[in-house]
Task: structure prediction
Amino acid sequence: MIALHRRRTSTNWVKLMQKTVERKLFGTDGVRWVVDKEDASFPLRLAMAIASYFPTGSRALVGKDARIGNNLVYNLVVAGLVSAGTKVYDAGFIPTPALQYCVKECGFDYGVVVTASHNPPEWVGIKVVLSDGIEAPPEVDAEIESILFETKFRRVSWHDLKPVERFDSAIDYYVNGVKKHFDGNKFKRKEMRVVVDCANSVSALTTPRVLKELGLKVLTINADIGLPYRPYEPTAETLADLMQVVKAVNADFGVAHDGDGDRAIFVDDQGRFVDGTISAIILTNYVSEKNPGLPRRVVTAISTSHILSDKYLIKNGIEVVWTRVGFLNIARKIVELGGALSGFEDNGGFAYVPHQLVRDGTASAALMADMLVERDFKLSYIVDSIQKPAILRTKIPINNREEGLAIVEALKKYYSSYKIIDIDGIKVVMDNAAFLVRPSGTEPLMRITVESWDEAVSKRILSELLDKIEEIRKRLGR
Result:
């Protein structure tokens, strides 16, 4: 992901792109930019490059989230794909996981989602999905970028342009795909009540419907599609309304989504925010009971809490496989390993593997309801049974990614006596604590996370880290 901000004419834009072939547009989750800060030709050209990567006549499913900026971007993307020889099927408003599911299950050659996920509403973005329903890997992104930077677009003759067709059954197909994993009769007997915060975006089309059709009583907030009443990213600070409503109506739980519906953050029956790692651990242990034939492993990003994973997964006999940050890395590692109980991130991204290998907010909500019915415990009781570590997060500005990598290498030497995981930055594992330092993939920042069961220990390690990094930067001459 990269932010493109300076205004420039179309001609200047092309010249700049040709001079910066090494520049990386695609990040951990597609390409993103502020919609009114870029030439309108950019999404058109990017779509032409995407279609030029795939063979002529490829069938692509295309959809969007509810961002206002998509009024500008979406039709340009469709036009760019068609101009380079793709047959476009237009799904319209659709959550990212619903489009991914349909791409895989309905046999499309690829998919394109016009979304900026959890970014603020002025942002827009484009994400490429391969035929297996998983985001395109870095090597595909690099080839698409090369076509874009070198303007090697394919153009087809006018008589070979394919008409755009609506794919109005996409939501129905996806909803039925989620529901088939759950027994609706038991929900009706339980009379479970849930509040769904749809972030005024496309999850309003799926999560309330799935839960209602399974037999739950559903109350929605922020369910009208349009400008969001809260930031798209679901955090403890942005979900105050959901927490109040859950408690006021005595709901069994609440669930909130981000802009494109692939994350699910939960609120327990007492109206308390549930950390994404804790909900993932709860769901993973339930999946191990619900699907005993699955391999007893999880795949998760290096940013996930190490000590929580050790105590509540590894010590329960579940292997933890770490990947670089970005769910496409998690999903493709699950494919490589031949399966898992789940894949997850600490931000509410969770993949229920029997359904699909990508994070899916609607499926996560249904799975949480299924677990609560089966276990017949309140979510607050289950959450309180998990010990909470003291996790401290901060970030510091750096000049560029190279400086960040140099800091990581210096830290490796300084902490070489500890266990180190260096697949993405450096994670140092101690007896009663762990920390992660890694350069951001999207901004000139170092992201730092420190965790321990003892808050005083977390504070001491963070202070030591900040001093050490400042010392390293001075030595580097920054």
Observations:
- Residues 1-23 have pLDDT under 50 and may be disordered.
- The longest helix spans residues 455-476.
- The radius of gyration is 22 Å.
